[in-house]
Design goal:
5-stranded mixed sheet, single chain, 16 helices, alpha/beta, D-Maltodextrin-Binding Protein, domain 2
Length: about 325
Amino acid sequence: MKACLKIGLSAVAAFLLIFAAACSPKEEVKKVKLAEVTRSVFYTPQYVALAKGYFKDEGLDVELKTTWGGDKTMTALLSDAADIALVGSETSIYVYAQGASDPIINFAQLTQTDGTFLVSREKKEQFEWNQLKGSTFLGQRKGGMPQMVGEFVLKKHEIEPHKDLELIQNIDFANIANSFASGTGDYVQLFEPTASVFEKEGKGYIVASFGEESGQVPYTTFMAKESYIKKNEETVEKFVRALYKAQQWVEKNSGEEIAKVVQPYFEDSDLETLAIVIERYKNQGSFAEKMTLTKDGWENLQNIMEEAGELPEKVDYAKLVNTEIVERVMKE
């Protein structure tokens, strides 16, 4: 009789546990629409966060869309086609200068150097920057960070971009590599993995890094409308927490291991090339492990913009940068 009673009580207890689990409210999965300015190995920590499920661990369903260009990315953010954008910090300054009532706030930094490389059509046994004088240089889109950093570095080496060489800036971002491959220009400014692929195929040769030459700058950051951050601060914090975890994982692992994780986002690139590119970015300190956009970095950004004649107005750091969320996450 006692045995039957025990079995009966156990069954009731099991039923109550199942009932409680079924009736307990599940944590709501929050969807986040993320727009990236381009698809690049430069953004490796972002793909690590996606591939390793760090966003899902935080209860986020992140939908990634590549918008191909700073203007298109900002349009997506302003029109609510995207909740969060990964793009150059200069775009937030452009929007602010146009009198936006809902400013775009930089809340987490992904990369802290330029991500482009100078590629020569001819192999150089010993490269000197003055070799660009008199050449045709296929640069990046006018007004974007790659173009501004490119001109900043040229001037640093006493090359006047609009006088000492033929500077081409009227080719759409997505077509720059193809234009060089088809014969346009003696030199070109390219992101990875395109630069390394060109070198492997004999289409060009990497001779210098704009990231090493320009120093630290908030090159690509995650940003959102001020109103979105206020209404969804918990979501943004979860988003940052997943990214911070990815940044730490990238810092601790080899290029080979990281390449295996992110390869699904670069199906046209082989593992060997991806590993080389990731190590190159790691070695020059491109990935912002701490993710905090500093005042010094913000000032360097505006100095580069001013030097390029693209700064519409000086904007105070506190107006367009929010570091509170990143700092909270890093203290955990």
